[in-house]
Amino acid sequence: QLSKLFTTAYVSRINANLVAPAKSVLIKPNELGAALARPLHLAAYEPYHHLSTLAAAVSYGIIRGEPF
Q1: Has this prediction a pTM greater than 0.85?
Q2: Containing domain of residue 48, as a range?
Q3: Environment class of residue 63 by beta-carbon count within 10 Å: exposed (0-12), middle (13-18) or buried (19+)?
């Protein structure tokens, strides 16, 4: 399952690789967890959504919550 792959620790490591050589700091871990849960809830309650919609839900949650 993707929910087991995309943990907050895994996403934090991805962010660290993207912003290197700057330091990546997870300021709001709860906001990141909520952002990662958005597509799971969306898929559970509205299963007809396309994968791109679920990806947009993650992106929106990260941008809106500003966990880093």
Answers
A1: no
A2: 2-65
A3: exposed
Look at residues 8, 9, 2, 12 and name the one whose alpha carbon lies nearest to residue 42. 2
The answer to whether 42 and 56 have CB atoms below 8 angstroms apart is no
At 50 the three-state DSSP class reads coil
Q: How many domains does the chain have?
A: 1
List phi, psi (to 5°) of 52: -65, -30
Q: Tokens in use for 45?
A: 């309650």
Angle, vertex CA 50, rays to CA 46 and CA 54, nearest 5: 75
Look at residue 34 and tell me whether its pLDDT is greater than 70.
yes
Neighbouring residues of 22: CB distance < 8 A, sequence distance ≥ 6: none
